[in-house]
Amino acid sequence: MFGCLVAGRLVQAAPQQVAEDKFVFDLPDYENINHVVVFMLGTIPFPDGMGGSVYFCYPDQSGMAVWQLLGFVTNEKPSAIFKISGLKSGKGSQHPFGAMNLPQTPTVAQIGISVELLENLAQQTPVASAAVSSVDSFTEFTQKMSDNFYNFASSFAVTQAQMTPNPSEAFIPANVVLKWYENFQRRLTQNPLFWKT
After folding, report:
1. Quick check: 101 pLDDT over 90?
2. d(C-alpha 173, C-alpha 57), whole Å
3. Residue closest to 138 by CA, chosen among 192, 70, 79
4. Are the C-beta atoms of 196 and 188 separated by less than 8 Å?
5. What is the pLDDT of residues 142-183, one digit of tens each?
6. How many of the other CB atoms lie within 10 Å of CB of 32?
7. Which residues contact 164 (CB under 8 A, 6 or more apart)?
């Protein structure tokens, strides 16, 4: 039902089932992992009204399991990317794996998936630093930044009659800034990653 992917490693598509509604993937050498992708295989959907909360578990200095909520997957959102590199020193959170005595070794962490009601998933608060920025938030930031630049540059606009000659200053016509702004917004709408090419 679930898969787990770490860049540079083989896909894990067979989690260990530790309870009727709980599954775990082992993450050997977890100290060298930055991001984890958790996804549904597409073979078995969640039952109606159900989804899966995704947890990261690592051993603390005393070898005790520390569980942190990363987020969730559902039939409508069948995959998610989580950043785990900054979580290894955080505090644990409430989790549904408490009664299970999962083996912990110093170099192996785990991803746990707990099948739960969607209404319960909506009330949970994941660890903030586990969220990976998406193209949408990048696009939003870029649009806000270009809006800010255009507004800032436009605030200095003067007419030719208001200009005083100053040989040490260069002036850029306001219509040039407006043209740049419109081109940038159009290209960003067509391809948010156009700047990488």
Report:
1. no
2. 57
3. 192
4. no
5. 877 888 888 888 888 888 888 888 888 888 888 888 888 888
6. 11
7. none
